[in-house]
Write a structure and sequence with these properties.
Helices cover 39% and strands 20% of the residues. By secondary structure, it is α/β, with parallel strands linked by helices. It has a single domain, classed as Glutaredoxin. It has a six-stranded mixed sheet. Strands 2-3 form a two-stranded antiparallel ribbon.
Length: 198
């Protein structure tokens, strides 16, 4: 119990330190992240979520909701806490509308990220319903990473990338870099406006 408390406090301290390093737009409005629009083919794989339920990835990502997706792992102390804090903050800012958005985090460390580890991780970030942490076989995880052009052979070499997609679209906004919650909300809002245009 004592060790768990220490780990929790260290994790929170790490998140706070990393948030201080998150690049924000300059006064001139310059973005500190790279944004591109890419078409991806979602692989037909079945993964496992934090509740040990089988999840067909293609079905989850095409369920008629806006989707935000990232690649993380449970023991990361650098990039992942910042990405997860962003998802958590966005869920909070969306309020009741958070249930209308599907948040998906895919583990890049399936050997360690068991459903129990993933559930504890989501609890740490006070995840609300609609945020799934997925794991699977190494082969299936690599298939998903390659499908989103996010493959790394070693988890220590992973990079910050977040994907957004609106229902009915096969195009994804790919955000490379440490994006602030404000910018993530803005990207999401802009994408909604684009999709609502006739």
């Amino acid at each position: 119990m004592f060790i768990q408390r220490i780990m929790k406090h260290c994790c929170l301290l790490g998140v706070l330190c990393m948030l201080l390093l998150v690049p924000y737009p300059s006064q001139a409005g310059e973005k500190r992240y790279e944004r591109s629009v890419v078409q991806y083919t979602i692989p037909d794989v079945t993964l496992i979520n934090q509740e040990r339920k089988e999840v067909k990835l293609r079905q989850l990502l095409k369920a008629g909701k806006p989707v935000l997706l990232d690649f993380i792992y449970g023991t990361c102390t650098t990039i992942c806490p910042v990405l997860s804090a962003g998802f958590s903050n966005m869920q909070n800012k969306l309020g009741p509308d958070a249930a209308k958005v599907q948040f998906v985090s895919v583990s890049i460390d399936p050997e360690y990220d068991t459903p129990e580890v993933m559930r504890d991780y989501l609890d740490r970030y006070r995840a609300k319903p609609g945020w799934d942490f997925l794991t699977g076989t190494r082969k299936d995880i690599e298939t998903v990473m390659r499908a989103f052009d996010a493959f790394v052979p070693n988890k220590m070499n992973h990079f910050p990338v977040t994907f957004l997609c609106m229902p009915g679209s096969d195009k994804w906004v790919r955000i490379y870099g440490m994006i602030s919650t404000a910018d993530l909300m803005a990207e999401y809002g802009n994408l909604q406006k684009e999709m609502s245009k006739p």
